[in-house]
Design a protein that fits this description.
alpha+beta; Aminopeptidase; two-stranded antiparallel ribbon; 6 helices; 10 strands; about 25% strand; globular
C-alpha cells in the first residue's frame, strides 16, 4: 500500500490533543503509519497498538471480529495508514477507535486515484451501568480524521467508509447508514458493483475548519516538520529547473 504520512513526519510520536464538540471535550491520539525510527521503539509501539486495537470488546466479543492477530498482520503488511483513538475527557471509558486506509476501493484500475477510508470503527462504553456521553466520541474521531487528512493531503476533499450489508445484516446496515448519514456521510453508487459486493460505500465532503481545542507539542512539531520538508522540496525543484534552463540555454557545438 502507498504510504502518505510518514514521509512528512519521520517520527513514531502520535498526534495528540483535545477537541471540544457540543460542550464535551475529547482527547485524541492519532498514529500515522508505517512507524519509522528506532527499531526497538517502533516494535514497542506496534505491540501496544496491536493490544489496544485487537483488545476492543463489544458485548464480550472482539469488536467487529478484529483480533490481535488480524491487527498484527495488517500492521506488518502496511494495510493501515493511520490508527486513531478518542475518549471523552470526562468519561474515559466512553471511547471510539478506527483505522485510516489510503486505497482505491472505487475501481479495479490500479492507476486510479486513491481515496481515504475510515475502517474498523468501534465505540466502546465500558460497563453497561456506566454513564455515557450525550455526544458520541465517534463524532470527535471523524472530525480529527478529517483534519489529519486535510493537513497532510490538502488536495483531498472527501473521506469514505463502508458498511457491511451481507445477507442477514441488512437491518443493522440500515441503522448504521442512518447514523453515519447524521455525521454527513451519504451512500454513493459503486462504479464497479463487483468490488466488495457485500459492502455499501458512503462518502463525506470534508469540513476544512481546523480542529478546535488544545494540541500538544507533537502536532506543532508535525506541522513544522511537514512545512520544512515542503520548503526543501521547493528549493530542490527550483535548483533542478534552474539547471535545466541553463542546459537549454547553452549553444550547440558542432
Amino acid at each position: 500500500m502507498t504510504t502518505i504520512f510518514h514521509t512528512q513526519l519521520g517520527t513514531v510520536d502520535p498526534i495528540k490533543g483535545t477537541i471540544r464538540i457540543d460542550n464535551e471535550s475529547f482527547v485524541y491520539e492519532i498514529y500515522l503509519l508505517p512507524l519509522t525510527g528506532n527499531e526497538v521503539t517502533v516494535s514497542r509501539i506496534q505491540n501496544d497498538l496491536i493490544k489496544r486495537l485487537g483488545g476492543r470488546r463489544f458485548k464480550g466479543a472482539p469488536c467487529l471480529g478484529i483480533t490481535e492477530d488480524i491487527v498484527r498482520s495488517n500492521i506488518l503488511s502496511n494495510n493501515y495508514s493511520g490508527i486513531g483513538f478518542v475518549h471523552n475527557e470526562r468519561i474515559v471509558t466512553d471511547s471510539a477507535s478506527a483505522t485510516l486506509q489510503f486505497h482505491n476501493w472505487l475501481t479495479s484500475d490500479a492507476s486510479n486515484e486513491k481515496q481515504m477510508w475510515i475502517n474498523d470503527l468501534c465505540r466502546t462504553k465500558g460497563e453497561e451501568k456506566e454513564t455515557k456521553s450525550q455526544v458520541s466520541p465517534v463524532k470527535a474521531l471523524f472530525r480529527v480524521f478529517e483534519q489529519v487528512t486535510n493537513h497532510f493531503q490538502p488536495h483531498m476533499d472527501s473521506i469514505y467508509l463502508m458498511v457491511d450489508n451481507a445477507v442477514g445484516k441488512e437491518a443493522e446496515s440500515k441503522k448504521l447508514q442512518s447514523i453515519y448519514n447524521a455525521y454527513g456521510f451519504n451512500v454513493v453508487s459503486k462504479l464497479e458493483p463487483s468490488i466488495l459486493p457485500d459492502s455499501i460505500f458512503m462518502k463525506k465532503v470534508m469540513d476544512n475548519r481546523q480542529v478546535g481545542g488544545r494540541r500538544n507539542k507533537s502536532f506543532r512539531k508535525c506541522k513544522k516538520r511537514s512545512t520544512k520538508k515542503r520548503e526543501r522540496n521547493i528549493r530542490k525543484r527550483d535548483r533542478t529547473q534552474k539547471r535545466e534552463r541553463k542546459k537549454r540555454a547553452k549553444p550547440l557545438i558542432h
